[in-house]
Amino acid sequence: MRLDEAKTDSYRRQARLKGYRSRAAFKLIQIDGQYHILAQGMNVLDIGCYPGGWLQVASQKVGPNGLVVGVDLREVSPLGDNVRIFRGDVTDRNFTEEMLEADDKVDLVLSDLSPNVSGIWELDHARQIDMTLNVLQLLPLLLKDGGTALVKVFEGDLLKSVWNRAKIDFESLKYVKPKASRAKSSELYLLCRNFLTR
């Protein structure tokens, strides 16, 4: 077994032991541990939240005075009192406006979106980048002035298009790769800080 595969198994075991719905919870825990993007009382939107590992982490971090809103095309089992879950397509503007009607804009947008991987790298990369660009286009509807976004990206030829789109709206950008991501994976996260409303 390769070292990165052993590490993957370790995170999966830890997730089961600690009651997290996915090993991806540790990616958010590690990013937050380094960059402190989650805080008590925040309102957070988690796009592509299935099966709910990031919802669990965010719920714990924002506490009873915060709110975490999750959205996914798949059904997600309910969580705590400070978590609201919607089933639908966040790129559908009508759905997004209805979802946010009661909650207003949020302090932090999380997006761990990934397509169903086909095994054809160029196609998978293009589809993932397109999903992320769609999220970035929606941020004026979703994010408060000064807010933060953390979005998954796949490395490749189209990655620069995400950076260029994000730098229009954010003061600070940084690529991060948590230890819980597989070493050989092309997965990165773009951390976008200080959203500038226009």
Written account of the structure:
There is one protein chain. This protein is an alpha/beta fold and 198 residues long. It has a single domain, classed as Vaccinia Virus protein VP39 (Rossmann fold). It is 39% helix and 25% strand. Strands 3-2-1-4-5-7-6 form a 7-stranded mixed sheet, with helices on both faces. Strand 1, helix 3 and strand 2 form a beta-alpha-beta unit. The model has no long low-confidence stretch (mean pLDDT 88).
Q: Outline of this structure?
A:
By secondary structure, the chain is of the alpha/beta class. Helix content is 39%, strand content 25%. The chain has one domain: Rossmann fold (3-Layer(aba) Sandwich).
Q: Characteristics of this structure?
A:
alpha/beta, Rossmann fold, 7-stranded mixed β-sheet, 7 strands, 39% helix
